[in-house]
């Protein structure tokens, strides 16, 4: 039985051209070797599985290659690898520096590859500083790490740094496709795309996942086999749920979510995938952003088709609600309810209550008409009492019950005026309208119109002022008595007030005030005009100085009193 070699080792890059997704770095290194412009200390940094160690080995081999040597020669005696994770002491570094002094027997350079260099201790770093700063002419150091921030700045300043990036999904998928062809494996494009996405930018992880899925499904690699083996939620689930929420089918969407949970997926994983699905639909709506879709060709057609059914406003709102659910998921005590509530909210974005059929409600409208006779007997007096409390003009219609021999009385709520809160803006406007309706005065042409004097008018005016004080309406009373009314021609009464605030207060009291004056003076031809006159304010004394001036006008002897006793205001 032939020994199996994992794809990560079997297809490890041997030349720079085989390195996936790092063209900028490989071209730079190739040009540096060709132009003899290579630094003696290099630092390769980046995520795991992106080709740092592979590039270091290829570079170590290429440095010594010349026309006189065959390409098969790997110069293994000139390449030294040190794993800093297990050799991180000062003694290990001192042993390394001792070896650096010895020149190579074959080739020009000795290359030292130190992997996971961030694991070196502080003392080891300090022992390595001098050698790294002034290495022998035949020595080249290549440091590799996944955590550049853990390396001390004095080491970083002595190295030429190369930042390796994550491998793109399309690059990883194309490389997997090449390997599948070499291995004689038939693979769906979507299946390879899912593996590339699952690897999250690491080519080594992608090859490991590829080997695992091939062991599961054999020579035929399908999308269903990949999703089943990797425990990935198939995108068909998101397509079907999106169709349900676009049609406002809340019960069916909740059932579909329950099926996802029964398969062992977490609600957090589901809502994250749903938000990403809405994002992909949004970018699929515009030709300029279609390239942002990192999906296979088959899936891209589905996204383009479904994106025509959803509006941009719907997708933006749905993404916001799904993102809010994602943020609140960890802190929620009822996580399933949170996801279900989010689904219901998304399904209600395009909901039109008037056009909606009752069959699509979670609780059908027929539920309220299919109560048992006992339940109706309990509900009927309560409902009648509510209607009676709402308005006295409510009519009750008799409706024949086709499912029962007895008849019940059902209130007609079409013309019932709803209660309004006393604190709502709507209630304030309704009260204003009601007051306006009550202020419509009658025609008093046939009523008495006796003649009265200014004095009689003032007596009636003061009498109503006393009534307001007795009722506790002191603010309106103060506005009313701030100035005396004047009697004009044709029984027209004029009241000058200093500001609009007082005018508004008296205006509210006008209907009751007019009724009192007409009845007290036995004259129903009286009219009242309220005028805002800022000059009236001069008649009122507010400060001590103004009050003194008022009293001084009435009695000039107050000046002598103040001067004799040396009084202050």
Main β-sheet: number of strands, strand sense, barrel status? 5 strands, parallel
Q: What share of the residues does DSSP label as strand, in percent?
A: 5-15%
Computed CA radius of gyration, to the nearest angstrom:
46 Å
**C-alpha termini separation:** 119 Å
Q: Which strand order spans the largest sheet, edge to edge or round the barrel? A: 2-3-4-1-5
**What is the typical, i.e. mean, pLDDT?**
78
| Unreliable sequence segments | 354-368, 378-416, 433-441
Q: Could you characterize the architecture of this molecule?
A:
- The chain has 569 residues and is α/β, with parallel strands linked by helices.
- It is 51% helix and 9% strand.
- The strands form four sheets. Strands 2-3-4-1-5 form a five-stranded parallel β-sheet, covered by helices on one side. A three-stranded mixed β-sheet has the order 10-11-12. A two-stranded parallel sheet has the order 6-7.
- A hairpin with a 4-residue loop joins strand 10 and strand 11.
- Helix 11 (235-246) runs antiparallel to helix 12 (250-262).
- It is elongated, with a radius of gyration of 46 Å.
What keywords describe this structure?
12 strands, 569 residues, alpha/beta, 3-stranded mixed beta sheet, 24 helices
């Amino acid at each position: 039985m032939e020994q199996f070699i994992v794809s990560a080792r079997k297809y490890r890059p041997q030349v720079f051209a085989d390195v996936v997704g790092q063209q900028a770095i490989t071209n730079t290194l190739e040009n540096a070797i060709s132009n003899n412009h290579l630094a003696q200390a290099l630092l390769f940094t980046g995520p795991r599985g992106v080709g740092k160690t592979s590039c270091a080995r290829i570079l170590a081999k290429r440095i010594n290659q010349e026309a006189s040597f065959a390409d098969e020669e790997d110069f293994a005696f000139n390449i030294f690898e040190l794993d800093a994770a297990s050799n991180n002491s000062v003694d290990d570094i001192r042993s390394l520096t001792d070896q650096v002094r010895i020149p190579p027997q074959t080739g020009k350079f000795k290359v030292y590859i130190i992997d996971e260099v961030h694991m070196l201790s502080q003392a080891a770093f300090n022992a390595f500083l001098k050698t790294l700063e002034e290495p022998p002419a035949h020595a080249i150091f290549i440091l590799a790490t996944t955590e550049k921030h853990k390396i001390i700045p004095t080491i970083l300043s002595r190295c030429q740094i190369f930042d390796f990036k994550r491998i793109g999904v399309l690059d990883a998928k194309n490389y997997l496709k090449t390997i599948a062809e070499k291995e004689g494996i038939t693979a769906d494009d979507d299946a390879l795309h899912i593996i590339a996405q699952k690897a999250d930018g690491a080519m080594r992880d992608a090859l490991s996942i590829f080997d695992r899925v091939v062991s599961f499904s054999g020579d035929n690699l399908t999308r269903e086999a990949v999703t089943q083996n990797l425990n990935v939620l198939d995108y068909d689930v998101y397509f079907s749920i999106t169709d349900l929420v676009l049609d406002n089918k809340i019960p069916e969407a909740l059932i579909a979510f329950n099926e996802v949970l029964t398969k062992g997926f977490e609600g957090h994983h589901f809502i994250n995938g749903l938000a990403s699905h809405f994002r992909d639909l949004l970018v699929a709506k515009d030709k300029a952003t279609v390239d942002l879709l990192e999906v296979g060709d088959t899936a891209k057609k589905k996204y383009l088709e479904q994106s025509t059914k959803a509006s941009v406003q719907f997708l933006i709102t749905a993404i916001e609600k799904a993102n809010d659910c994602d943020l609140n998921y960890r802190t929620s005590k009822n996580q399933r309810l949170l996801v279900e509530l989010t689904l219901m909210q998304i399904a209600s974005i395009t909901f039109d209550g008037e056009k909606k059929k009752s069959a699509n409600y979670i609780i059908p409208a027929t539920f309220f008409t299919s109560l048992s006779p006992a339940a109706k007997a309990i509900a009927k007096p309560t409902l009648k009492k509510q209607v009676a409390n709402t308005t006295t003009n409510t009519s009750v219609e008799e409706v024949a019950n086709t499912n029962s021999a007895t008849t019940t009385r059902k209130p007609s709520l079409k013309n019932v005026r709803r209660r309004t809160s006393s604190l709502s803006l709507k209630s304030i406007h309704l009260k204003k309208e009601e007051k306006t309706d009550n202020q419509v005065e009658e025609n008093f042409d046939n009523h008495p119109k006796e003649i009265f004097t200014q004095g009689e008018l003032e007596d009636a005016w003061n009498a109503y002022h006393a009534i307001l004080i007795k009722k506790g309406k002191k603010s309106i009373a103060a506005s009313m008595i701030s100035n005396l009314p004047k009697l004009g021609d044709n029984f027209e009464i004029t009241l000058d007030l200093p500001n609009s605030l007082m005018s508004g207060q008296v205006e509210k009291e006008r209907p009751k005030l007019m009724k009192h004056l007409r009845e007290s003076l036995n004259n129903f031809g009286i009219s009242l005009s309220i005028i805002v006159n800022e000059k009236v304010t001069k008649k009122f004394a507010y400060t001590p100085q103004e009050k003194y001036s008022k009293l001084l006008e009435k009695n000039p002897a107050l000046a002598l009193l103040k001067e004799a006793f040396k009084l202050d205001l």
